[in-house]
Each structure stands twice: as C-alpha cells, then as structure tokens.
Specification:
The protein is 72% helix and 0% strand. The chain is mostly helical. Helix 2 packs parallel to helix 4 and helix 5 runs antiparallel to helix 8.
C-alpha cells in the first residue's frame, strides 16, 4: 500500500512539480499589459515538459556528485523544495499581474471546434489508458532504455553497453525514478508518464498552429497529429522519439514567440527546451542549426520590414538562449565524450553497415 501511494505521488510529481514555474514564466511577458491570455493548454504542456526535465536533471546531478545509488527521497525532496519555491515566486508576482482575458474561454463552444476537441481528448485518453495497461513490449525499450534504468537504480550510475552508453537518458531516468518509488520495476507507470510527455507534442502542435495562424488551424494541426498512425502507435512505446518531439515543438513555439513578441522569458525557454530535447534524443542536437538559422532570419526580416525598429532577437536574447541550452547539453555530451570517446554513438545499424 505504501509503495502504491509513493508511486502515485511520483507520477504526480513527474507531471506537475514545475506547475508554479510554468505559470510564472508564461505570465511574466504580460506584466506591463492591461490583460493576459487564458492559456491552459500551453500551461499544461509546459508544466509536463519542465516537470519531467526537473526530476531527471536532479537525478543526473546527484549521480555526478554522489557516485552511489540514489534513494527516492533524495530525488523527491529537492524537487518538492523547488516546487515550494515556485509557488512563493508565482504568488508574489500574481498579485501584480493584469487580469485574465475571460472572453477567450468560450472560443471552443461552437460545434466544429467542440467536436474536434472532443475527439482529440478521447484519443489522448485512449493513448494514456493503453500506456498504463501494458508493460514494456517494444524492442528498444526492453533492450536499451529499461536496462539502463534498472542499472541506475542499483548503482546510481549510468552504465550501459558501449554502443548505448552515451544515449541521452531523460527517458531512462524517468523510469528509474518511478522504479525507486515503487521499490521494484514499474513498467506501467513508466509508460504512462512517457506517454503523457509524448502527448505534449499534440498540445504543442495546437499552440504553434494557433499562434502562426488561428485557433482553427491549431485544432486542425492537433487533430492531424494525434490521428496519424505513427503517433498512435509509438506514443505508448516509451521510446525517446516523441518525448524529444514534444520538447522540439515547444522550442519552436517559443522561438516563434520570441520573434513576434520579443521577451527574455521566451529566449530562455527556447534554449532550455532545446536542451531537454537533446537530453531526450541525440538527433535533437540538429535543433541548434535550426535555431541559429532562425536568429539570422529574424535579423534579416526585421531589418527588411522596419530597419529603424531594431532587431526582433537581441544579443540579450541570444545570450539567454545559450544560458538555457549550454549547461545541460555540455554536461551530458561532455560526459559522453569523456566516457566513450564520441558525442553521438554509432548505432547498431551504422556500426555494422558495409562502408561504401
């Protein structure tokens, strides 16, 4: 019974510990305005993304410092302290914020958006149910991520076969935390938490489409995304691809916000979410090139349309993007380089392919 309660607590912590920080970060750009938007979908998406990131980064730091097995409380207590600090920061700021624009809360009540939102919600519930109903069953989860997670539970160190030792570990560390809470392997809740993180990509598709065009475009993007076979199949596999995609699309969203409504918070979140994407899957390192191209484009586009207005993305914004991005990426990929001699490992396919 105690282990079950701890496991439920661990799941809630993984998915919500960063909630006050998400509220605070999303509200800061509107402090000087007369109203701020009511944006629960973006708040939920950012909360889940930052919460999983916070828990796993705490585990990574402890692993580097202690060099010994971790306990559930050793991870949970710092996370709870950060959660409490977040509430203190948020409540201090909230009293000085402009009121929420309540007129935005009725946008979905016409028949077409209501039907689409209902179908999206139904499919997402089905995905989460499927994730919690079955144990690990897909090849990479069983052969790569689950063994790394179990070895971490027993040793406190990220030990794996040389081919996989430098794989990013956000997903395996999430498994490890839930195993620590359960006192044994917790495959069902591990799949559930990673599925919830994967579904953040659906919310990310909505907010990106909404900000680029309008709400109907956002709903269409989310509907097409959630009903695509690849999402329905792999969101419950506990693979690293869709968690990385969730961070990737949120980084793209805040990069767009930074261009259209420049603010230091958007710069910091762009860099931080890009770093968490790279901490989920090494292929997300390519996001660096995309963001660099976006910065160059923003300079050119702003100069072309309004040379006297200055740049949409300033040097301060670029610095904040780097502050959000560099520490975690250098920490993990520096470890990979020192321990294994590479940043991106040869996979089982490329390592055995005939060179031509």
């Amino acid at each position: 019974m105690i282990n079950s309660a701890l496991l439920v607590f661990a799941v809630l912590l993984c998915l919500s510990v960063a909630y006050p920080w998400a509220r605070w970060l999303l509200a800061l750009p509107y402090r000087q305005q007369t109203q701020r938007p009511d944006d629960p979908i973006l708040t939920i998406c950012l909360t889940i993304a930052l919460s999983v990131g916070m828990v796993t980064v705490i585990m990574l730091v402890w692993a580097a410092v202690l060099q010994s097995p971790l306990s559930f409380s050793l991870v949970s207590i710092p996370a709870l302290l950060l959660h409490a600090l977040g509430w203190w920061v948020w409540l201090r700021v909230a009293r000085h914020l402009p009121p929420v624009n309540l007129s935005e809360r009725v946008w979905w009540r016409s028949p077409l958006p209501l039907l689409a939102v209902g179908l999206i919600a139904l499919v997402m519930l089905g995905v989460l149910f499927d994730a919690a109903y079955w144990p690990f069953r897909d090849v990479d989860t069983l052969s790569i991520y689950a063994p790394i997670a179990l070895r971490f539970v027993h040793s406190g160190q990220l030990i794996a076969a040389p081919t996989y030792g430098s794989y990013p570990v956000l997903v395996p560390l999430t498994f490890s935390y839930l195993h620590l809470a359960n006192g044994a392997a917790s495959e069902y809740m591990s799949r559930f938490v990673i599925a919830a993180l994967s579904l953040v990509s659906v919310g990310g598709a909505y907010v990106l489409g909404r900000d680029l065009f309008n709400r109907r475009a956002g709903i269409a993007a989310a509907f097409l995304f959630i009903t695509s076979p690849i999402i329905l199949r792999w969101s419950t596999a506990a693979y690293t691809d869709l968690p990385a995609a969730a961070y990737y699309v949120l980084a793209a969203f805040f990069a767009w916000r930074l261009y259209t409504s420049p603010h230091p918070v958007y710069a910091l979140l762009t860099g931080l979410l890009a770093a968490l994407a790279a901490f989920s899957k090494n292929g997300a390192l390519l996001l660096v090139g995309s963001l660099a191209g976006w910065v160059i484009y923003s300079y050119w586009a702003t100069w072309r349309t309004s040379p006297s207005m200055g740049k949409a993305i300033s040097r301060q914004h670029i610095l904040l993007m780097l502050i959000g991005y560099i520490p975690l990426v250098v920490f993990w990929y520096g470890h990979a380089w020192l321990a294994y001699g590479w940043v991106i490992p040869p996979t089982g396919w490329t390592d055995k392919a005939i060179r031509t």
